[in-house]
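Can anyone check this?
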Amino acid sequence: MNDNLVLICGKSSTGKSLSLKNLKNPEGVMYLNCENNKKLPFKSKFKEYTITDPMQVYEAFTSAESNPDIHTIVVDTVTYLMDMFESCYVLGSPNTMQMWGEYAQFLKKLMSQYVAKSTKNVIFLAHTSDVVSEDAIKETLVKVKGSLMNQGVESFFSTVISTKKIPIKKLSPNSMLNITPREQKIGFKYVFQTVLTKQTLNERMRSSWDMWAEAVDDGDLDETYIDNDAQHVIDRLHDYYN
């Protein structure tokens, strides 16, 4: 199992791609762009590859494993990657039922045969949607199709972080949350939410129970919200598991 694995998910325009900006040694980041060559919101020195066929992601993980200069693999986004599989292999197939089975197996194989065995840091980005269940319960989750919807993309990850846009007045600075003068001026900050709260019980954030400090009494360190900086998360994973 790859301990240095994280899913960063959230609604559109909440800072998912921007969170990659401070990754260390950017020349060693393999960035797999699954979103029609969408541009990153910052100047990047990543090794960028445009994915036009889902099978290229398998090839990329194999290539990265044999390249000591690569330390991190980013898949942006798993949501678009699965849509791509549908477009490339399901739609128009003479046996759509079989190909929907292959759709689910593609992600399962990626996670079990490539990601789990990787020695690199692995970051997946994903879009979330609000979904109402048959019991009329609203959940915020990574929406995919077929049997994967029941299993949930999040179930493949032990660390799931959510991107948020939060008013400054609701945030308390900590060692991993710095509020800049510009953020004070505009009144909000893009952050990572690391653990569930009473207001977000319908979401699927997760991590080891003691990975992030939670406030119990006034004055305790609270890391419920931290800077939307993927390097912070990678560093914490390394510290926690190693």
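Reply from J.R.: I decoded it. The chain has a mean pLDDT of 92.
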